[in-house]
């Protein structure tokens, strides 16, 4: 699914190449026509703003948003397992699924990095891929909710991913998970304390927060209604 690959590119660290491709990327979203207007419109608006923004400032904003602290971390298992040993096993299982599909992970990349995960989903059989994506939709929706509270345009990408998954999320559960987010950090000491806090979804000793595929889900699953 090309739309997923576009979303993966938009979630990656912004660079000159992405900005140069922005018009073509928008064309793919429109041509694929998988996203409803209410989801596509804010996404296109974000892409337009990113294309015309100062690149260095966009890069600084990206690092501040996604790399400094856990609240908006793009590593999915971080929100489920934190630094527990269960995260390592989940990484291994996901890496094995990537290998089965011929997807090679670059040096220094982690398999639960959301842009990489979306690339994987895009090459799966559609039904299987969307089912796998739906398992992680609660976490992606929770990150989107926290981005929305931060007034970040990146929330539009998370909304698009959830919409594509077809998952019907329970808004109350998503808000509850987002409420567990840690406060904004201001010092290095606060950063150290933040990484020691428990994860938003609370990993269970038996890895009960993982679905049958080894991918993260919330304790209540994805069956709640909007």
Describe the structure.
By secondary structure, the protein is mostly helical. It has one domain (2-194). Helices cover 60% and strands 0% of the residues. The protein is built from 12 helices and no strands. Helix 3 (22-32) runs antiparallel to helix 4 (37-52), helix 9 (126-149) runs antiparallel to helix 10 (155-165) and helix 9 packs across helix 11. 35% of the residues are buried.
Mean pLDDT value: 80
Report the biggest beta sheet as strand number plus sense, adding barrel if it closes: none
Report the structural category.
mainly alpha
Q: Quickly count the helices.
A: 12
Share of helical residues: 55-70%
The first-to-last residue Cα distance is 25 Å
Radius of gyration from the alpha-carbon trace, in angstroms: 17 Å
> Strand content of the residues, in percent?
under 5%
Low-confidence stretches: 182-188, 194-214, 216-226
Pattern of helices and strands: HHHHHHHHHHHH
Number of strands: 0
Number of domains: 1
Rough shape?
Answer: globular
Write a compact overview of the structure shown.
The protein has helices at residues 2-11, 16-20, 22-32, 37-52, 55-67, 78-81, 85-100, 114-123, 126-149, 155-165, 171-179, 188-194. By secondary structure, the protein is mainly alpha-helical.
Question: What secondary-structure arrangement, pairings included, does this model have?
Answer:
Elements (H helix, E strand, L loop, with lengths): L1 H10 L4 H5 L1 H11 L4 H16 L2 H13 L10 H4 L3 H16 L13 H10 L2 H24 L5 H11 L5 H9 L8 H7 L32
Helix pairs in contact: 1-8, 1-10, 3-4, 4-10, 8-9, 9-10, 9-11
């Amino acid at each position: 699914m090309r739309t997923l690959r576009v979303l993966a590119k938009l979630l990656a660290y912004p660079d000159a190449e992405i900005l140069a491709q922005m018009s073509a990327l928008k064309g793919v979203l429109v041509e694929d026509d998988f996203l409803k207007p209410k989801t596509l419109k804010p996404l296109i608006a974000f892409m337009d703003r990113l294309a015309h923004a100062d690149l260095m400032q966009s890069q600084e904003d990206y690092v501040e948003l996604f790399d400094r602290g856990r609240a908006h971390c793009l590593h999915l298992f971080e929100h489920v397992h934190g630094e527990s040993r269960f995260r390592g096993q989940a990484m291994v299982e996901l890496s094995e699924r990537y290998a089965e599909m011929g997807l090679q992970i670059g040096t220094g990349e982690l398999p639960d990095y959301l842009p990489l995960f979306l690339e994987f989903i895009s090459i799966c059989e559609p039904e299987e891929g969307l089912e796998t994506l739906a398992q992680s939709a609660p976490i992606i929706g929770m990150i989107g909710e926290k981005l929305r509270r931060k007034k970040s345009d990146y929330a539009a990408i998370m909304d698009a991913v959830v919409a594509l998954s077809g998952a019907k999320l329970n808004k109350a559960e998503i808000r509850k998970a987002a409420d567990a987010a840690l406060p904004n950090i201001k010092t290095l000491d606060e950063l150290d304390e933040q990484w020691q806090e428990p994860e938003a979804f609370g990993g269970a000793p038996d890895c009960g927060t993982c679905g049958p595929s080894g991918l993260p889900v919330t304790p209540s699953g994805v069956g709640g209604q909007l």
